[in-house]
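Quarterly update from the structural biology core.
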Amino acid sequence: MLDEHGTVTEHKADNFELVDDPLEVAEDNAADSNANLVADQDSPTDATSTSPDKMQVVRDWAVYRYYFKSARLPLSLSFLGVSLLVAFCYNFPTLWLKWWSDANAVSPNNNLGFYLGIYAMLAVVALIGLMMVCWVMFVGMVYKVGEKCHNRMLDIVMRVPIAFFALNDTGKTTNRFGQDLQLLDTVLPMSAINTALFAGSCLVQIVIISYAANYMAATLPVCLVVVYMVQRYYLNTSRQLRVLEIEAKTPLYSAFIELLDGLATVRAFRWEQTLEKSNYRKVQDSQTAMYLLFCIQRWLNLVLDLIVAGLAITLACLAVGLKEKSNASSIGVALSNINTFNQTLANLIKAWTTLETTMGAVARIRSFVKETKVMKHPNGNLTSTPRSESLAGMLEFQDVSASYGINDDDLALSGVNMTIKQGEKIAICGRTGSGKSTLILCLSKMLELASGSIIINGVNVAILSPDQVCSSLNIITQEPLIISGTVRFNATLGNSASEAELLSAFQTVGIWDLIQEKGGLDAEMQPASWSHGQRQLFCLARALLYKKPILILDEAASNVDSATEQQMQDVVNTAFRDNTVISVTHRLGSIFCYDKVAVFDKGVLVEYDDPHALLEKPSVFAELYRESGAQ
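Predicted structure, tokenized:
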């Protein structure tokens, strides 16, 4: 609970709720999503950051145009047109009742069926129109916009260099696909519907008021100017308060993510009470701006009530002063619409505020798609390039240098020159941060080169797309890739493979009996019931099932026992004897199974030779070998 200064005075950890109004909850959810926008502005190195006035982007019509264009123009026009029709049918009955009353005063009960039928028809059309508005928005527009925005962002993420993830917080990218898309699918549709309906209702009510009491038309321009000034002042203030609220919620969100990642450490060192106090302070800070936001919402209601009260008083005074030009039915219609105009106007401004806030999600997605730098897809073709079979797995690194983009002078790789012949088995070793995995990232085109070139099968990878490069690579990483699904699906990843091929691959790596024990190929794969070594053997079987010229083992055996490591090494030596193998390893016990060893130190290739030759002379490799205690 909050006191009069916006400070948290009481909280309940298991069910912390401060807001019960669904509209305010929607506004708060929309405001939360803007945390990424503020974070983008605060980070000068953010690849997706834009100009300092990005907060105002939701007022740019280009954002609305981007949204409605994604939903397709016919659907957008249908939505706006039907919304206006619903607003007309919802508000016009008050004027129709006036006409009915006037006609009934002249000829009682004359044309009763006609007036009653039109009245009922307006209600039915309003109901059907409302259903059509919801159908167009939720079935048509939401699906198309969500799908297009998701696919556009996914395409961008799949084509960004690895430096993007080094420069940007993972939480920002996750929020693009999580909270921003959730806003597009849930909050924004209702905000758009409410804004369209309330705007149409305000327009129709103004026309009805002016028609019923035509002398009120003279006051409407003044009223509209006042309302415009109020909403402009309110929106600007509300936007700034939301920014303040977001700035306070960003560390709260970051602390939650960090707590989940380090939960075991927190429990081990018994930091629960310290972190609880810290998080409580963050929650308290995040609620202060929310309290002020509630205050200006109450202020808005008060100001709008005063404006409408002024209109009602003006109408009453004019009706009394011009009673010879007024009649009871017209005054009744005007007063009825003025009374409802207050709430309609308040709802319009609230809905408009929510819409403008949630459109921030569209602005961020649009900015992410348009401004994120991606790797270009060249038109080269690895498979169609003429080459001899003896070059099928040949690799050349020619003066390769690479940086993660934070500082071009701080190179992760510097001047690497190395040639790997077809069928050679190469081990890459070095201390942590020496550039071993960076070399693999460059080879797979996940990290762009600062200089130099990498040649695969006589073709420079610079003219190839990442997909074309990866068509020659089988990569097994330190963490096994296991996807929710059956054993068969995880082995084939949607590709075709016969029962005999699957059986042969699993028998070769020695896990066929294990698969049978767990229910066979069509059983659901539960990673928790598989050891790390068994999952790595499964990935090795997948690589064996779809052989490619080059096999890369990036710390694949770092978290397995010695027996599993030897089993993996035996499979590599036999099943992949004709393939080029590159193994990044910290373990040097099986290093002599490789033809050559490449030793890296601080991004530089310091040694590249036969492991026996390096061990027999003073070398960095010999020092690493002795430090590892390998026998």
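Residues 4-8, 10-58, 382-391 have pLDDT under 50 and may be disordered.
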